[in-house]
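Researcher: I'd like a candidate sequence for this fold, 130 residues long. If you have to choose between options at a position, lean toward the conservative one.
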C-alpha cells in the first residue's frame, strides 16, 4: 500500500562541531491536509510534588477518523523530569467546528525516590500543522 505524503524538510547546523539536524514538516497525508493540537496540564502529586507539561501532538490527517501521537518532557521539579508519551483517543467534535482529543497515562519512573505520575487531559482545538 502506497500512501502519498507531502511536506518539506528544513535543516539546521547550529554547532561548530559539524552536527547537523533536520525537521520534517508533513503538510498532507493521503490527499488530506494535516493538523496538530496543543496539549498541556499538571501531573498528579506523587512523592510530595507534581510537574507541568506542555507541547504539540504529532500531525494527523484532517477530515478522517484519526488519533495523534504525543510526547514531551515535564518541568524540572525536585531535581528531575519525567517523559510523557502516548496516543490520544479518537476525535471528539466541537459544536462550533473542529475537534479535540482526550489523553491520559503515566509518566516514566524517575527521581531520587523512584516514582511516576498520572496525567490526563483534553487537547486544544485543531490547528494547521506547524
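Model: Candidate sequence:
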Amino acid at each position: 500500500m502506497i500512501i502519498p505524503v507531502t511536506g518539506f524538510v528544513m535543516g539546521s547546523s547550529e554547532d561548530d562541531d559539524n552536527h547537523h539536524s533536520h525537521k520534517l514538516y508533513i503538510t498532507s497525508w493521503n490527499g488530506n491536509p494535516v493538523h496538530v493540537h496543543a496539549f498541556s496540564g499538571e501531573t498528579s502529586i506523587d512523592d510530595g510534588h507534581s510537574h507541568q507539561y506542555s507541547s504539540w501532538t504529532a500531525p494527523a490527517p484532517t477530515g478522517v477518523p484519526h488519533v495523534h501521537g504525543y510526547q514531551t518532557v515535564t518541568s524540572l521539579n525536585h531535581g528531575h523530569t519525567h517523559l510523557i508519551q502516548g496516543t490520544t483517543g479518537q476525535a471528539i467534535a466541537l459544536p462550533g467546528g473542529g475537534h479535540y482529543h482526550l489523553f491520559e497515562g503515566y509518566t516514566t519512573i524517575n527521581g531520587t525516590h523512584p516514582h511516576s505520575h498520572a496525567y490526563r487531559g483534553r487537547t486544544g482545538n485543531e490547528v494547521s500543522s506547524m
